[in-house]
Prior knowledge:
Layout: H1 8-36, H2 42-60, H3 65-69, H4 90-101, E1 104-109, E2 112-117, H5 120-129, H6 156-166, H7 172-198, H8 205-222, H9 235-244, H10 251-258, H11 262-268, H12 276-293, H13 304-310, H14 329-360, H15 362-375
Antiparallel strand pairs: 1-2
Transmembrane segments: 44-66, 248-266
Subcellular location: Endoplasmic reticulum membrane; Microsome membrane
GO molecular function: heme binding; iron ion binding; oxidoreductase activity, acting on paired donors, with incorporation or reduction of molecular oxygen, reduced flavin or flavoprotein as one donor, and incorporation of one atom of oxygen; steroid hydroxylase activity
Amino acid sequence: MFLTVAPPLCSSHTSTERSGDGAQSSGRTAERTMGYFPDFSIETWTLIVFVITLIAVYGYAPYGVFKKLGIRGPKPLPFIGTFLGYRKGIQNFDTDCFKKYGRIWGCYDGRQPLLAIMDTDMIKTVLVKECYSVFTNRRDFGLNGPLRDAVSIVEDEEWKRIRNVLSPSFTSGRLKEMYTIMFKHSTNLIESLHKKVGADEVIEVKEVFGPYSMDVVTSTAFSVDIDSINHPSDPFVTNIKKMVKFNFMNPLLVLTVLFPFLGPVFDKMDLALFPTDVIKYFYRFLQMIKTDRNKADHKNRVDFMQLMVDSQVSENNKNDSSLQKGLTDNEILAQAMFFIFAGYETSSNTLGFISYLLATNPHIQKILQKEIEETFPGKCEPTYEA
C-alpha cells in the first residue's frame, strides 16, 4: 500500500486559497443582496415602512364595519371593496347576495359601506316614515356636471327648498291635467304595437316603452311633442340612449370610488360621468325652452317647466332670505335635465318588467284582462279616477 502525506506548507497554502474563495463568495452574495435592497439610510427605510403601513391601513380600515355589526355579506378586497361584483350587472350581483345572505347584507362600494335591504318594512321606514328627518340626503359620488344642482343630489336645506318648489307639480289636480296628454301617447303606443304584431316583428320592449316614456315626459313636463315612437332616430332619442348607457368601469368612477378625495378635484375640473356632448345637447335644448317660456304669451302654461320659471330668482339673489325661495337659472335647468333622465329610465323599465311578468305568467294576464273588462265595459276609455 502506498500512502502520500501532503507537506505542511501545501496544507497552509490550500487553506489560504479556500479562505480567499469564501471571502469572494461572501462578497458576491453581499453584492447580490445590495442589488435587491438599496443601501438606504435608517431614516429612509423608516419612512418607506411608514408609508407602506399607511397604504395598508387605508386599504383595509373600512372593511370591518359589518363584521362588528354581525351583518353578513361578500368578502371585500383591499381598496375596491366588493365593487368588482358589479361587472356581471347590479341585478345579478344583488340576486346572488340575496340567495347567499338573505334580505339584508353588507357590501362596500370602494371604501364606502353599503347596507342592502330587501325587507319591505325597513324599506318603508327609510323611504317614507323617516325620509324627511333621517334619510333626506342621497349618496353622491360627485362628477355630476350640470346635474350638481338636481334635487336628488343637493342636501339638507337646499334639498328642502328645491323640493318645496317642485312639489306642486305632482298634486292630484296637476296630474289630472296631464292625464289627457298621457292618454294620447298611450294610444300611439298601442298603434305602434299593433303594427309590429301585424308585421310579425320581434318586439324589443325597451325600444317600445323607451320612446313612449320619453314622449310622456317631454309632453307633460315641457309641452314639447317629440313623437319619438314614430321617429326613433330623432336626436333627442339617440342622446337619451347614450345617457343611460352607464358604465360602472368608467375610469373616473373607479378612481372616485377608490380614492374619494379625488371627487372634489374632478368637480373643480368640471369632469362628469355623463358624455359631454349629450349633456351639452340637453342643456341647449332646455335652455331654449326656458328662454321661450319667459315670453308673456306662455304664462298660462301649467307644466313642470313653467312652475319652475314662475318661481325663479336671479343667481345673485339666491341667498337672499327676504326673497321667495325660488330657483336660479342653473337650478331650473338641472331639475329639467334630471326629470328627463329619471322619468325615461324608471318608467320604461317598469313597463318592461310588467310586460315580461305578464307574458311569462299568462294566468295572471287573464285575471288582469278580466278586471279591466269589468272596470271599463264595452272597451270604454279609462278615466283618471279609475
